[in-house]
Amino acid sequence: MLQVSRIATYIAVVIGLSALAGCNTTGRSVISSPGTSGVTDEPAAGFKKIMPGSEEDYIMQAGRRIYFKAGSNDLDDVARETLDIQSQWLRKYPQWLIKLQGHADDSRQSATNIALSDKRAKVVMEYLAQQGVAPHRMWVKGYGSERLVRKCRELECKALNRRVVVNLRKQYDGAAPQFKKKSG
């Protein structure tokens, strides 16, 4: 009797696992939520008809953010890899101007953070220029800890604030030396 019970349990487990294995044969992650098709790799809202060379294309193909270690303006391997992808895209679409916005977490005094965020943006600009992006298209602005992604105490959270954001522009803004030359 005990033997029959074990065999029945074994068969039930095998059937259950077989049924689960057949649930998703597409290789795509599926969520069963009402009102949606349920596929998680569909384009995000507003990103369905992305034009090559558009700002949306840049965000999707190259990304906008470069992250740094605490108190550092050194580029690590991940940052260089991201910048290599960005530089390829930026060389392909030279119509865009590039504002490099440096940021820092709130671990230091304001003046120190502004100087560090400015150094981060300049390091990114120098790297992009070395990769063939025309320097006259770029300018930097260090914001220090003025524009935090999140205000928090955890180190993992603070890391989100130590970044340079590469923003595409159609014209120079007031932070650009090129703008000051034109209007001055």
Notable characteristics:
alpha+beta; 184 residues; 60s Ribosomal Protein L30, Chain: A
Layout of helices and strands:
Blueprint: H1 2-21, H2 55-61, E1 65-67, H3 77-92, E2 97-102, H4 110-130, E3 138-142, H5 155-158, E4 163-169, H6 177-183
Parallel strand pairs: 2-3
Antiparallel strand pairs: 1-4, 2-4
Structure commentary:
The chain contains six helices and four strands, in the order H-H-E-H-E-H-E-H-E-H. Strand 2, helix 4 (110-130) and strand 3 form a beta-alpha-beta unit. It is globular. It is α+β, with helices and mostly antiparallel strands and 184 residues long. Helix 3 (77-92) packs across helix 4 (110-130). Strands 1-4-2-3 form a four-stranded mixed β-sheet. Helix content is 41%, strand content 11%. Residues 20-40 have low confidence and may be disordered. The protein folds into two domains: 1-42; 55-183, 60s Ribosomal Protein L30, Chain: A (2-Layer Sandwich).
CATH architect. name of the largest domain: 2-Layer Sandwich
> What is the CATH level 1 assignment of the largest domain?
Alpha Beta
- Overall pLDDT level: 77
Whole-angstrom Rg: 24 Å
CATH topology of the largest domain: 60s Ribosomal Protein L30, Chain: A
Query: What separation lies between the terminal Cα atoms?
Result: 96 Å
Overall structural domain count: 2
Counting DSSP E segments of at least 2 residues, the number of strands comes to 4
DSSP helix count? Answer: 6
What is the string of helix and strand elements? HHEHEHEHEH
Helix content: 40-55%
- Strand content range: 5-15%
The outline comes out as globular
Q: Low-confidence runs (pLDDT<50, min 5 residues)?
A: 20-40
Q: Spatial order of the strands in the main sheet?
A: 1-4-2-3
Structural class: alpha+beta
Kindly report the name of the CATH homologous superfamily of the largest domain: OmpA-like domain
